[in-house]
Amino acid sequence: MSRTNALILGGLLILVLLAGLLLGETTLTPGQYAQAFAYPASPPGEVLWTIRLPRALMAALIGGGLGLAGAALQGLLRNPLADPGVLGVSAFAGLGAALTIALGLSAVTGAVEAGALVGALAAGLLVSGLAARFREPEALILLGVSLSSLGGALTALIFNFSPSPVATAEVMNWLLGSVANRDFGDILRALVPMTLGAALCLWSARGLTMLTLGEETAALSGLPMASLRTAAVAGAALMTGAAVAAAGVVGFVGLAAPHLVRRLAGDDPGKLLIPSAVAGAILLTAADLISRILPSEQELKLGVVTALVGAPLFALVAWRASRSWRA
After folding, report:
1. 11-68, pLDDT tens digit by residue?
2. Which spans in the chain are helix H?
């Protein structure tokens, strides 16, 4: 990616973060903004620094992780439709977290996060195995959709047998996705698995680049391809699990982000990772801002906003990809 394009992406990220800080459901006057910056402990300062800032940062962190996970999976599977949501990784992460909540373990520190991570890793390993067995891209996507449906069905089963309507409502509300009421402690807890997952995906970049030359050429390159594949899957699963644990199920960001920056960064999947992470951060921060400022009695859930935008995009990408499959 050229320096100009990198600066544009970085500038857009700063702009949406500033918008996330300055705009919201509560309208502040210029005097209140000045008071917030001069006296952070004042009521306007509390709105900006305690409520809006951690929310915007959490949205950027989750979006960045999902964008990077989507780019890693698309590069690894060489499939433009690969995405943690489409392949069922998000659904199984949601299943793990929902099971933890239904069992009454949500009060245990780190239990929901651990449940989501275990679910995401299990789905990631399963997807990796399916990718090795089924080379046809359309077959892999169909299997991923089936896996996603299975995760959703098992989560619905938890609803069905849940003895507590309160727990059911809690799981349902959380699954719709939101970064409302998050604080800096939540960010720090999500940051650990996100950082580890990002490091694994970035380490696998050379392997993703070699895969564009074909399986045999990649195998003869001298790179530890098996380790690089495992790192890409584990990294994507870790970031998806951390994202689901922190914000619920937020779909389509991992699908959309790589496509939005591919013309700027080129087709090399290894070089697409970081731009996709930045694009994902921009997308989700903007989506959260939209959910906050839309006039409605109840705040629109983040997962609903991303699905409304992402579903048509998925249909468009699938239509374009199907033409190459028929060729």
Report:
1. 999 999 999 999 887 788 888 899 989 988 888 889 999 999 999 999 999 999 999 9
2. 3-22, 30-38, 43-45, 53-77, 89-102, 111-133, 137-161, 165-175, 184-203, 205-211, 215-219, 225-247, 253-265, 273-293, 302-326
